[in-house]
What we know:
Elements: H1 3-20, H2 26-35, H3 54-70, H4 78-87, E1 96-104, E2 111-119, H5 128-136, H6 143-150, H7 163-170, H8 172-188
Antiparallel strand pairs: 1-2
Helix pairs in contact: 1-3, 1-4, 3-4, 3-8, 4-6, 4-8, 6-8, 7-8
Amino acid sequence: MTPIEIQNNKEEFLNLFRENVKREGREELLKxxxxxxxxxxxxxxxxxxACEGGLCAHSLSVYHTLMEKHYNEETDDIESFTIASxxxxxxxxxxxxxxxxxxxxxxxxxxEKVPYFAIEDKFPYGHGEKSVxxxxxxxxxxxxxxxxxxxxxxxxxxxxxYSISLAYxxxxxxxxxxxxxxxxxxxxxxxxxxxxxx
Length: 198
C-alpha cells in the first residue's frame, strides 16, 4: 500500500467516524488511536492485508461490506454500525512489529533477509474482548456494539463455546459484523499482502 493510499484510508476512516459517531469520548478515542500505529499497522501477519496500512483498509472494507449487505436505514443505527465495523479490530493496534527472517532465494539459491510482520502482543487480553476494553477506556459502547465486537471472530475465537450462540441470537449486529468481517477477509481482500509472500 502506498503512503498516499494509507493517508487516504486514514482520512476516509476519520471522516466516516466523525460523520456517523457523535458519542461522548469520540475525540479522545481518535486522539489515542492516532498515537498508536492503528492507521499504519497490518491487518494480519501473513494473511489478509498483511501490509502497511492494512488494518485501516480492512476496517474500511468491513464497514462498506456491513453497510452494503446488512444496513437497513429504517431499523438499524448508523452510529452502532460505524463503531462496530471500524473499531472491531482495534486490538491489533500496537500488536505487530516488522522483523526479518532468512529465506532462500529460489532463483539464486542464496539466503536473503526478508521483512515480515511478527506478533508482539504487549497486552494479551484476547481479541474481541481486547477491542471492547480499549474502546471503553475512552468511549462507552452500547451492549449490542460490545457483543458484536466481542464475537466478530465467530468460531475462530478459541473461547466461543455456548456464549456465542446466545450473543448471535440476542444481537443481530453481532451476526452482521461477523458475516461482513468474513466476506471482507476471505473474498474482498485476497491478494492484498505485500509482506511474507514466501
